[in-house]
Amino acid sequence: MSALSVLSVASEAFPLVKTGGLADVVGALPAALAAEDVQVCTMLPGYPAVMDALTEANEVFAYADMYGAPARVLRGRAAGLDLIVLDASHLYLRVGNPYLGPDRRDWSDNSVRFAALSGVAAEVAAGRAGLPAADVVHAHDWQTGLVPAYLRYRGGPPAVMTVHNLAFQGQFGPGLFPTLGLPPQAWSVEGVEYYGDVGYLKAGLSLADAVTTVSPTYAAEIRTSAGGMGLDGLLRARGNRLVGIRNGIDVTVWDPATDPLLPAVFEVGQLSGRSLCKAALQARLGLARDPDALVYGVVSRLTWQKGMDLLLQSLPALLEGGGQLAVLGSGERWMEEGFAHASRVHPGRVGCMFGYDESLAHQIQAGSDALLVPSRFEPCGLTQLCALRYGALPVVARVGGLADTVVDANEMALQAGAGSGVMFAPGQQEMLEAALHRTAELWRDRALWRQLQRNAMRTDVSWERPAARYAALFRDVAGHGTLSRAA
């Protein structure tokens, strides 16, 4: 079987630029696919962090005018990734969040910033200026949703579109269309038009040769009117061209036995280091030093989707009997203020850090006893995969990838020696509180808790199986298997 070349196009990649799980997937999947004889080159915008990290960079071609100023395309390496970088300082040379300005609002030119990325990606994939043409293009989320459109209308290799979160769709006014360089026939329901606007994600879903999302359950949920965010009809029409492939995590980065960001290391057969991690976490976030306290961790965006309002409402149930809460995240301002208020009202019981800190994220996974993910919907979730790996029992809503990755420690599971966390019905304060009470009951039986921790830590959360599924899909889409573009 010959090696397959894939151009992965994304708006972020760990460890270069990260706002969420998308970056972790884009950064980790190339190495996992290499084991499947799939060679991945990743294309990113030339953000400051990307440009600073880029080594062995060569200019492969340039543009005299790209949405108002010159731009060039570079090829190089950074953070172990083979990279193609679109160096357009007027579009990407901005500090901070790649999508939001200092006022925490979307950059006003996001439409052209990511149209440029998509259009150039299509030219790269087709082999412009002597670059090797890709066998398949892998586009991620709305920011690259126009890639399948450019490939379909201009010509190029087949494309796979991955939806990491259907809630973010990239919808812009019709006045944008003439600037995109697409033919008139692209302005149609079958193309990029979406309720009179230009729909980036909609275009990708409609024109890609296959669509994936990041867990099997989420793939089913988004085909329904309740979960489809207005795109369920299109997604149902894609039939077997829409598949769910669970995310994994980089188990070399997330390894409690070797993690350099932890005050102590541990593994499934020797958990004593966790107590040191717990004490260090309590000290770092101003929690009372109490080895017997049930410490819940949160590493999350603080948003309605993530159910963080439900958690604020359920704090009395969490704090009953001496529970503690360690929070790392940022999001809606009123939720940040709510958690900050809780830390003032409950000193030593609630500790918060707003923003993102990679070391603290690792320390929460290693030092908390349970990790809370009360999402109303969750395409996959990576934080619960890290929690499983580190022995922090996930307490999760039964939705999307959370339902696919956590085994509820219910009565029958316990009888069978199974269970790796606690699950509850989403979107209801009462159900979250019931889950917190059930978690506290499990915590009181330390021998049982240790068994559940061992179950969790033995769960395969790696990219091995998901990467094999992606590789098979890429070969099929490229015509190396049963699913071809002509089918």
TrEMBL record:
ADP-alpha-D-glucose binds at residue 18. GO terms for biological process: glycogen biosynthetic process. HAMAP family: Glycogen_synth. It holds the Pfam family Glycos_transf_1. Keywords: Glycogen biosynthesis, Glycosyltransferase, Transferase. Residues 290-447 form the Glycosyl transferase family domain. It comes from the Bacteria. GO terms for molecular function: alpha-1,4-glucan glucosyltransferase (ADP-glucose donor) activity; alpha-1,4-glucan glucosyltransferase (UDP-glucose donor) activity. This is Glycogen synthase. Pathway: Glycan biosynthesis; glycogen biosynthesis. InterPro entries: Glyco_trans_1, GS/SS, Starch_synth_cat_dom. GO terms for cellular component: cytosol. Its EC number is 2.4.1.21. It catalyses: [(1->4)-alpha-D-glucosyl](n) + ADP-alpha-D-glucose = [(1->4)-alpha-D-glucosyl](n+1) + ADP + H(+). Synthesizes alpha-1,4-glucan chains using ADP-glucose. Belongs to the glycosyltransferase 1 family. Bacterial/plant glycogen synthase subfamily. Residues 6-236 form the Starch synthase catalytic domain. The keyword Transferase applies.
